Amino acid sequence: MTEAVIALGANLGEPKKALEQALKRISKIEQTILLKVSSFYRTAPVDSSGPDYVNAVVTVETELEPEALLRALFVIENEAHRVRPEGVHNAPRTLDLDLLLYGDVVQQTPFLTLPHPRMHERAFVLVPLLEIEPDCRIPGKGPAGDFLESVKDQAISRLP
Predict the structure, then answer these.
(1) 84 is catalytic
(2) DSSP secondary-structure letter at 111?
(3) Which of 42, 96, 118, 122 is catalytic?
């Protein structure tokens, strides 16, 4: 079993409900056990537009290979009516699931880059990640906590 970290986000429709439903679906992915779930956070869009996001981070243990886990996450996104407009990067979305870390794997393929290439630049990833994994290290980069200072200007607040 390998521990993996997944980021969840949504800013269209009912974002909080979308994340709650995604958590239920993630817990049912074959050969995968949901371990930890962060609080939900409200965040302003980064390199995007539209209303504020609701974000969270989870850890899972899985026997799936990284690409198979990512495909399972895409199925959950599709069930939530995720649309990926052609030529639009970081469009507002009903659900976004990103595979951030897969053990200590470092890889770059046309389908998947690990660790997620911008995770250390996003408060909406780092804050919830460090809530549930305070000693998390990003392979090839170092302790995740070392990047908090560089994202302190990104608005984020824990939801009740």
Answers:
(1) no
(2) S
(3) 96
Q: Which of 42, 71, 93, 137 does the annotation list as catalytic?
A: 93
Cis status, amide bond into 15, omega within 30 of 0? no
42 is catalytic: no
Catalytic residue (choose from 47, 71, 84, 98): 98
Residue given tokens 């949504």 in the structure block: 10
- Give the confidence band of 55 by pLDDT, cuts at 50, 70, 90: very high
121: CB partners within 8 A, 6+ apart: 147, 150, 151
Cβ-proximal residues to 9 (8 Å cutoff; 6+ apart), any chain: 15, 19, 43, 53, 54, 55, 56, 93, 95, 96, 98, 124
Cβ contact 126:101 at 8 Å: no
Alpha helices in 27-90 (DSSP H): 66-79
98 is catalytic: yes
pLDDT in tens, 11-26: 988 999 999 999 999 9
pLDDT of 85: 47
Helices 66-79 and 15-26 pack at an angle, to 10 degrees, of 140
- pLDDT-derived band at 28 (thresholds 50, 70, 90) equals very high
Told to judge if 153 belongs to the known catalytic residues of this protein, a careful annotator would answer no
